[in-house]
Design a protein that fits this description.
The chain is of the alpha/beta class. Helices cover 37% and strands 17% of the residues. The chain has helices at 14-17, 20-27, 64-78, 97-103, 121-126, 143-154, 164-169, 210-228, 230-245, and strands at residues 2-7, 32-37, 50-51, 61-62, 85-94, 108-113, 118-119, 130-133, 195-196, 199-200. The strands form 3 sheets. Strands 2-1-6-5-8 form a 5-stranded parallel β-sheet. Strands 3-4-7 form a 3-stranded mixed β-sheet. Bound molecules: adenine. The site of adenine has 13 residues, from strand 5.
Length: 252
């Protein structure tokens, strides 16, 4: 899977590309992550990427020209191949595990990182094929959001985790085909020692009875979800189909 990231802070991505999952997936050739500096698509001496908002108000707005030029260069390079162009912004629809799974069906996606007070609306209206938010809070830019999206989608790709089984049962996995018929939170995990300062690991996990262990884990996951995130249970029971149907378009 290839990601093209458009940003005015290309250096931001150095850390996440040199550590952990994204580094490993790149080294194995599972992903190809290309970071593009939007200033390379400006045509003035100062490499201007932003300007004051029409109508007044505080802050600066990212200009449309460099973003359009950068995406057009990618499209030209891709030839016939269409790909989603995703604007990361707090105004987007909420990114989640299901959307991540849908994204992995595309061999290539472009991510536009918003900045400052906003991005010229013509980018969202006429260039991006989708606008996604990673949560109901405001970051100062889309870079962290793009990093989150890449991490979440990359770990779903075959051969990245090296343990497909752990994907099938983890929190938020679409487990309609698995033992839990809804997207649940994960169950509690324990490791040695069995007794840590008097805090004992639940006996069932030491029993060696795999049937009992499975039932205990499923019950714990359900309990935790119903206490902390009841909307997850309601959401998946009621709307698994509409959510699946809200697939990302493959381009214009
Ligand atoms: N840019 C700023 N806040 C954001 C958010 N919550 N999600 C995606 N991009 C953002």
């Amino acid at each position: 899977m290839r990601y093209d990231v458009l940003t005015i802070f290309p250096g931001f991505f150095n850390g996440i590309l040199q550590h952990g999952l994204l580094k490993r997936a790149s080294a194995r050739g599972r992903v190809d992550i290309r970071i593009h500096d939007l200033r390379d698509y400006t045509d003035d001496r100062h490499r201007t990427v932003d300007d004051r908002p029409f109508g007044g108000g505080p802050g600066m707005v990212l200009k449309p020209e460099p973003i359009f030029r950068a995406v057009e260069a990618l499209r030209q390079d891709a030839g016939e191949q269409d790909f989603p162009v995703i604007l990361l912004s707090p105004q987007g629809r909420l990114f989640n595990q299901e959307l991540a799974e849908q994204l992995t069906r595309h061999p290539r996606i472009a991510l536009i990182c918003g900045r400052y007070e906003g991005v010229d609306e013509r980018v969202a209206e006429h260039l991006a094929t989708d606008e996604l938010s990673i949560g109901d809070y405001v970051l100062s830019g889309g870079e962290l959001a793009a990093a989150v999206l890449m991490e979440v989608t990359t770990r779903l790709l075959p051969g990245v985790l090296g343990n497909e089984d752990s994907l099938a049962r983890e929190s938020f996995a679409d487990s309609t085909a698995g033992p839990l018929r809804f997207a649940a939170l994960d169950w509690p995990h324990y490791t040695r020692p069995a007794d840590f300062r008097g805090l004992r690991v639940p006996e069932v996990l030491l029993s060696g009875d795999h049937q009992r262990i499975r039932e205990w884990r499923e019950r714990q996951a359900l309990l935790k979800a119903s206490k902390r995130r009841p909307e997850l249970l309601v959401r998946t029971e009621a709307s698994a189909i509409p959510l699946a149907a809200a697939s990302l378009s493959g381009g214009h």
